[in-house]
Design goal:
The protein is of the alpha/beta class. It has seven helices and ten strands. It starts with 9 loop residues before the first strand and ends in a 9-residue tail after the last strand.
């Protein structure tokens, strides 16, 4: 049974997490014995080279895949302890995703794209549109709500994707190279926006990136090397 109450000091905890894959009969360990704890409102960067397992880690944290070993809890709920339906509901309530490519639905307007998670979560059409309109205004797109993705710039599409990730007021947003497909000027604007929203909404961020400029603006940074996490800063870290 799931519960809305989170007695833990952390919104996200991964304990002893590992993930193996088979290539034919060969066992390939991708992640090994990872431990992560993220507090409410904290911004964590996970850096690593391409192919180091960053996206695999995000999929495990978001309950899109199961670890071979260990557990992942979001707001006190172990992903592996609930079935697919309950997992989808918990994810909709507590987790947002922002990807390098926006993955918007081309036939829907910006408003409809952002409202969709609320509708899936059971909110009324009116309430979903109200929340979507509010978030689109917050990301500077109040005058673009009726535009479809093809009518928006790359930066505008990513802003819509950010609004969609935040519209259900999740506990944590997981981001996979959120500015990696943007030019440097637009990337800075998007990053500034994310940091502003983090402060105003107190939503935790876990950002996987290879960009040191992004990592430098997070509260804490860890490195993913050879399937293991290492603290990247001298300050106190909850990553072992």
């Amino acid at each position: 049974m799931t519960s809305d109450k989170n007695d833990s000091a952390f919104v996200l905890e991964a304990c002893g997490v590992g993930r193996d894959y088979y290539q034919g009969k060969i066992l390939l360990p991708v992640l090994r014995d990872l431990n992560i704890s993220v507090k409410a409102g904290e911004k964590l960067a996970v850096v690593g080279v391409s192919g180091s397992g960053k996206t695999t880690l995000l999929n495990l944290l978001g309950g899109l895949d199961d670890p071979t070993a260990g557990t992942v809890d979001v707001c006190g709920q172990d992903w592996k302890a609930i079935d697919a339906s309950a997992r989808a509901q918990w994810r909709n309530k507590h987790v947002g995703f922002v990807y390098q490519f926006h993955h918007l639905l081309g036939e829907f307007s910006a408003l409809e794209n952002v409202a969709l998670p609320c509708l899936i979560g059971g909110a009324s059409v009116a309430e979903s549109q109200r929340r979507a309109t509010e978030l689109l205004a917050k990301v500077g797109l109040a005058d673009r709500v009726d535009h479809k993705p093809a009518e928006l710039s790359g930066g505008e599409r990513q802003r819509v994707a950010i609004a969609r990730a935040l519209v259900t007021s999740p506990s944590v947003v997981l981001m996979d190279e959120p500015t990696g497909n943007l030019d440097p000027h637009t990337a800075k604007i998007i990053l500034d926006l994310l940091l502003e929203l983090n402060q105003s909404l107190n939503i935790s961020f876990v950002v996987v990136t290879h960009d040191p400029a992004i990592a430098a603006r997070m509260d804490r940074t860890v490195k993913l090397i050879d399937g293991q996490l290492l603290a990247a800063v001298a300050e106190e870290s909850s990553v072992v």
